[in-house]
Amino acid sequence: MAQTAAEFQPLDYTRYDFKNPETYKVRTAQGLSREIVEQISRLKSEPQWMLDYRLRAYEEFVNRPMPDWGPDLSDIDFDGYTYYANPLAEGETKRKWEDLPADIKNTFERLGIPKAEREFFGGVGAQYDSGTVYHKIREDLAKKGVVFTDTDTAVREYPDLVRKYFGTVVPFNDNKFSALNSAVWSGGSFVYVPPGVDAGIPLQAYFRINARNVGQFERTLIIADRGAKVHYIEGCTAPVYSTDSLHAAVVEVVAEPYAKVRYTTVQNWSKNVYNLVTKRAVAQEAALVEWVDGNMGSKVTMKYPSVYLKGRGARADILSVAFASQGQVIDSGAKAVHLAPDTSSKIVSKSIAIRGGQTSYRGLLRVARGASGVKAAVRCDALLPDDDSRSDTYPYNEIHEQDATITHEAVVGKIGEEQIFYLMSRGLSESDAIHLILMGFLAEFAKELPMDYALELNRLIQLEMTGAVG
Prior knowledge:
- By secondary structure, the chain is an alpha/beta fold.
- It has twelve helices and 25 strands.
């Protein structure tokens, strides 16, 4: 009754695998150089400090070697990508949906963005390749002082805030791909929630790659001031091409004392996308940062949402999920770095690898000297429904205080024949039984998602299981 790789049907990606003609008002030449970096900054009419930052990052990127650990990245040709392609003129972000060009509007309507805006969210941003084409926030949130705009606009309209926080959580020299992002970044979201304000309704951004061989390098900066609360949600897709695309984002989150930030990601890139992302948060005194991170697409993903707990009593809660099928390597996980006393963290990693897919948990738990009274727990659960897939766990614990309470649990399992038999005895087909078991395995993740995203997760898993036979 055990499933083999050949018995699982490929995922139906038709909802996302459509593309528009590549008509761009602004597009740089293919390849990366100092001149391209200067051109991007010039197109955006940026202040000198941002150009200087980009150029320092470019030099770091050129001189820094590729990572010598993790998935194979040797096929990436950095000169084969276009680093800036905007369907609108720079600064032409639309505030009314009807003002968008028809092809772009149809793209996001097919992906459900207007419906999401009307029914669920307090603000919506949409990025198409390098350009933020649409951004809007509800008037009631704006009246509270909540800022939700694209990062390019924020550089112009909120320069003091941007300069104060930009690059302080993820510096340009953190890693090869943070340097690349810092050199060529475009778009992304900027969120600022004033002291004591609860944004209440989630803010959403959606990132879409349309063109062949175009890289997307959004830069997101979220600041929750003292006692503020905000929930930010992002989704990502791309059409399927025979050649690769590159997505290398940087996300910086700042939770000031007593603030609460939840960051939910559901990424379903096509299987020709390298998804190489740096996401990091800083939590000050009694702040709470929650990452809910789902990865169900891409050719290769390397992503490890992190929280640096800098203030006494700060908390981190990270839920990371990976679903890898044929031709996919998803190397994901989490990091919790305890730098202050009485801090706590919980990391839960869930992964499913089928049809020869590969998943890995790669995590760090660090308790610094002086960070007394720390409580931390890590749990890694992996499910392998067939004999052709692989799951690995690479935990790293670095504990420098004797009174820390640390737990770590890792379990790798297969779907039991008894489970399938029991469900089939209750009238389910074998394929439906397997689907039900997988969704039960992911229930901890699914229940944290907005309804539309939870339904989409269920649909994707069900499609992957369609046609499975004993």
